[in-house]
Amino acid sequence: MQAHETGNVVNNNVKYEEDYITNSRGMKLFTCSWNPTQHHHQQHPKALIFFCHGYAMECSVSMKDTGMRLATAGYAVHGIDYEGHGKSAGLLGFINNMDCIVHDCTDHFTNISEREGNSKKVRFLLGESMGGAIALLIHQKMPQFWDGAILVAPMCKIADEVKPSPAVAKALSRLARIIPTWKIVPTPNDVVDAAFRLPETRMEIRENPYCYKGRPRLKTAYELMRVSTELENNLHKIQLPFLVVHGECDIVTDPSVSQLLYEKASSTDKTFKLYPGMWHSLLYGETPENVNTVFTDIISWLDEKCAFGRSRLEREIKHSNEQNSKTPFSKQ
């Protein structure tokens, strides 16, 4: 069920729209999209891009520049605020079960992909930080569905220096069942200060009412730890083409883990870019020059995949041909 909220052209090149959808648990979730306008790109969008935002973040405000840049480059961009995030229903900053978030994203993204006019378009996932983990989990849920992923400083492992001991992890698991929403998980420093290089960006995040600024809630912290461990143990199962980008000076997610992802993934088409001197938030927390560098690399990678690599479509055709060759007649 969908209730349309608003749609407007942001400028002559991009049309921005917002919607609310109801998930399988009856919760109202906010969704938005940026599309190239017809007179800007006479052809249909080059591909569909599905954005998975980071922990405590949201789509419509902090992702606006990303949506605008990619739509201006000819891509249709779709975002969703997870349960407990942004303008969606749920207690702000609370993740009761990461599997539910993965399910919501998969439902919404596949529904858009299968709309009339979209079914033959190339499909990319774009995940930032915790959203990188979610993008990889979406891929694992439907390995043959996605054509590629852009992973921006992805959360694929809890850094060893902040990883709780087995005894503490067990206690956290027990407490998370008793007092799941309590904000008592200590963090080593202010994540906003650690993630965003520019003071003006930090101020925007702090003033954004849709971003969660409190300490991590117990069950949320447990889910982040659970999912990171699961991904860390299954990096070799990642098969899709991907570009992973990471700032060398990131102290929120570990660049060496992105290196590990690059080395261990089974993907035959994979690229890793490490940016000297850059921090965690590459898409909107860096200097304008640095943000431009990152987006130039992302758009070049996307354009190359759209020009040469419609691998999912080729696989579907190949699979269909193989099935047809095995069944020379059909039983009525």
TrEMBL record:
Membrane-spanning parts: none
Top-level taxon of origin: Eukaryota
Chain ranges of the Serine aminopeptidase S33 domain: 43-283
Cited SUPFAM superfamilies: alpha/beta-Hydrolases (SSF53474)
PANTHER family in UniProt: PHOSPHOLIPASE-RELATED
Protein name (database record): Serine aminopeptidase S33 domain-containing protein
Organism the protein comes from: Kalanchoe fedtschenkoi
